[in-house]
TrEMBL record:
Pfam families associated with the record: EPSP_synthase (PF00275)
Function, in words: Catalyzes the transfer of the enolpyruvyl moiety of phosphoenolpyruvate (PEP) to the 5-hydroxyl of shikimate-3-phosphate (S3P) to produce enolpyruvyl shikimate-3-phosphate and inorganic phosphate.
Cellular component, GO annotation: cytoplasm
Taxonomic placement: Bacteria, Bacillati, Actinomycetota, Actinomycetes, Actinopolysporales
Keyword Transferase: yes
Protein name: 3-phosphoshikimate 1-carboxyvinyltransferase
This protein's pathway: Metabolic intermediate biosynthesis; chorismate biosynthesis; chorismate from D-erythrose 4-phosphate and phosphoenolpyruvate: step 6/7
Main localization category: cytoplasm
Length: 429
């Protein structure tokens, strides 16, 4: 039986910054890297070690799902995950929660298991786009009952694989999910995308890089086409980078208060989409330094509006929308129609919630126009969306009497968020 994620009932009064925020904030591991690493470790030829993994609802769901299909995952003394691959088998039930990565990365892996693997998740997960993945798996020789959540994969321990064309314009995770399990498809995989542009391509680049780093040959030399040769996956020994998209609200705190926030261990090179915050904050007038201490952002007196195509980095949109609402002038966020299929319809949610605080927001076909205005307090609804909740917290730094209805929903990727936020504000001056 799949349970709904239980929201915290008491509304959270977002703390107001009484001055410029000055803090160093350690941010936990990347969700995207952790969940890819778990899948690859489950399919690797020998046991793997995952150091500093993200522990959150999304990553715990991924680990639990892999355990239910036969993978051994235990925790070491320093919080590292030790992952021992096993024979993949059903019957099993996978709870996807609201995690796009579990929903899109595990059906291909389930096709490699023997027996029936049933999938379900939160009510909203049933609405998130998925059909192209299941159709693609059928075309590759898999047996799938159903076209969206709940559905079941009837595995025979073997998937022929080969060539398939899908429309991945709703989510890059359709491509990443197929690629991650493809080394174990009998004939490997060539997946072509046909349709409007694939969003979030850095996430596909992350998948390709992690596969290559562990001995898998991937050809991504042609646009909209990816080929994976059948191969063994080398075991992982990986230290997970901090989650740069989760770091974004803390950096935003410096930007909106004219303060200064450092996030240690910011990687010099990365495939994480969150790294794009550097360019975005610079365009909004912040100063950035990347050195041995990490990334330090120092906010300007007044944020400048921006015109941004966020197609590649859509998961940053709620944070950027909060910044735009506090900037002077009109900002335009483009290329993010696919956000309508995220944890909630993020375009509608941002329009509604920012509008309710007095912001002037227009929803366009592929984004938002946001005019910075004096805002007033009110109730900020998070719609079970961790990034809506953190966007509310950013606004609350400058807007008194703003309450976030369900701050606990941040546990999807950042379980300590409320304490981290309050501790950061302990160093206001
Ligand atoms: O593969 C991943 O780890 C992700 C891909 C992106 O999904 P979409 O392509 O659906 O936007 C991103 O928004 C999500 O937060 C994580
Ligand atoms: C879109 C997101 O998550 P998911 O992995 O569930 O798609 C996100 O974290 O912003």
């Amino acid at each position: 039986m799949i349970r709904d994620h239980c929201p915290m009932t008491a509304p959270w009064l977002a703390p107001v910054a009484r001055g410029a925020v000055h803090a160093t904030v350690e941010v936990a591991g990347s969700k995207s890297i952790t969940n890819r690493a778990l899948v690859l470790s489950a399919l690797a030829s020998e046991p793997s070690v995952l150091r500093a993994p993200l522990r959150s609802r999304d990553t715990d769901l991924m680990a639990e799902a892999l355990r239910t299909v036969g993978v051994r995952i235990s925790e070491g003394e320093d919080g590292e995950w030790l992952i021992t691959p096993g024979l993949l088998r059903g019957p099993a039930t996978v709870d996807c929660g609201l995690a796009g990565t579990v929903l899109r990365f595990l059906p291909p892996l389930a096709c490699l298991a023997e027996g029936e693997i049933a999938f379900d998740g939160d009510p909203r997960a049933r609405e998130r786009p998925l059909g192209a993945v299941l159709e693609g798996l059928r075309a590759l020789g898999g047996t799938v009952k159903g076209d969206s959540l709940p559905f079941a994969v009837l595995g025979s321990g073997y998937l022929p694989g080969g060539e398939v064309t899908i429309d991945a314009s709703a989510s890059s995770q359709f491509i990443s999910g197929l690629l991650l399990s493809a080394p174990h498809f009998e004939n490997g995989l060539t997946v072509h995308h046909e349709g409007a542009a694939v969003p979030s391509l850095p996430h596909v680049a992350m998948t390709v890089e992690m596969l290559r780093e562990h001995g898998v040959e991937v050809d991504d030399s042609q646009p909209n086409s990816w080929s994976v040769s059948p191969s063994r996956i080398r075991p992982l020994d990986l230290t997970v980078e901090p989650d740069l998209s989760n770091a974004a609200p803390f950096l935003a705190a410096a930007a909106v208060t004219g303060g200064s926030v450092t996030v240690p261990r910011w990687p010099a090179a990365t495939t994480q989409a969150g790294d794009a915050m550097r360019g975005i904050l610079t365009r909004m007038g912040a100063e950035l330094v990347l050195d041995e201490a990490g990334l330090t952002v120092t906010g300007p007196q007044q944020l400048s509006p921006v015109d941004l195509d966020l197609h590649d980095v859509g998961e940053l949109a709620p944070t950027v929308a909060a910044l735009a609402a506090l900037a002077e002038g009109e900002s335009r966020l483009r290329g993010i129609a696919h956000l309508r299929g995220h944890e909630t319809d993020r375009l509608a949610a941002l329009r509604r919630e920012l509008g309710a605080l007095g912001s002037e927001v227009t929803e366009t076909e592929d984004g938002l126009l946001i005019r910075g205005r004096e805002l007033h307090g009110g109730k900020w609804h998070s719609y079970a969306d961790h990034r809506m909740a953190t966007a509310g917290a950013i606004l609350g730094l400058r807007v008194p009497e703003l309450t976030v209805d369900d701050i606990a929903t941040t546990s999807k990727t950042l379980p300590d968020f409320p304490d981290m936020w309050t501790n950061m504000l302990g160093t206001v001056r």
